[in-house]
Amino acid sequence: xxxxxxxxxxxxxxxxxxxxxxxxxxxxxxxxxxxxxxxxxxxxxxxxxxxxxxxxxxxxxxxxxxxxxxxxxxxxxxxxxxxxxxxxxxxxxxxxxxxxxxxxxxxxxxxxxxxxxxxxxxxxxxxxxxxxxxxxxxxxxxxxxxxxxxxxxxxxxxxxxxxxxxxxxxxxxxxxxxxxxxxxxxxxxxxxxxxxxxxxxxxxxxxxxxxxxxxxxxxxxxxxxxxxxxxxxxxxxxxxxxxxxxxxxxxxxxxxxxxxxxxxxxxxxxxxxxxxxxxxxxxxxxxxxxxxxxxxxxxxxxxxxxxxxxxxxxxxxxxxxxxxxxxxxxxxxxxxxxxxxxxxxxxxxx
Length: 350
Description:
Blueprint: H1 3-9, H2 12-30, E1 37-39, E2 42-43, H3 60-72, E3 87-89, H4 98-102, E4 107-110, E5 113-116, H5 135-149, E6 156-158, H6 165-173, H7 176-183, H8 185-209, E7 215-216, H9 220-223, E8 230-233, H10 242-257, E9 264-268, H11 276-279, E10 285-290, H12 293-296, H13 298-304, E11 310-313, H14 321-327, E12 333-336
Parallel strand pairs: 1-12, 2-3, 3-6, 6-7, 8-9, 9-10, 10-11, 11-12
Antiparallel strand pairs: 4-5
Helix pairs in contact: 1-3, 3-5, 6-8, 7-8, 8-10
């Protein structure tokens, strides 16, 4: 990278600002501060496409350099006193089907996004993949190595979509995993357990190898948490009853979040309100991230979560910012949007 690009990606002023915001965010997670804090991260990546229209994932070292250069070109707005604008690089290999491909599912690109085909083996026979020789996992590892070898100090590293046991099981089996929970519970528990063990191994590879201060899970620019917090995707939990979630999924989700020193977040985007009493019982669940349909249920989360659990809110037509601020006025709140909220300012010290 040229000297001007490296200067931006190692800017002491931007790093000081970023660290000051992390300090304010840490006060919300671990202290008495409630916010609201405005999060509006900066992210960029560079993709090349093949003749079939699918992204070309080759030469991870070159991809990491291109992504860092693209981020540097967007960092002019990083220094804000009213918004936390962390600089993030996240190469989302195979989208939400990254882990599906690791497990051997056929993944393909169509109409601008990734899809996968279900496995042909029945629920209960899932085998742990050979990660050492797995093409998809090695691609992600090589990219991460290249990112950190570049020697930058500012950009956060966003993980690929490691998701959650239930999300991946639904991608691999469709409705059959839900049927198995009722008809073949031991088979369902076996496969969900295999998936979760692999997900934890993936997270721990990053945690064991790189500075935790630089690592953020998926959608890093919009779900940034203080260093040491993890994340899982709970999109599909709306499909299961409280009883099924408590028996089959809740222990796995909490174990995955426990892989991080301080627990972490569940991303929610549907109608998950029936599970809030269980979310409140999960010791390692420290925040919930709400967008779209889930944002409309903000009042349920504000009333039902523990006092120490932080709510991340993306305003939407069904939950405009002003209404959300009123509903969550007594809650620990982070707003992910390009907005200004009077009184929320941070002045970094160099």
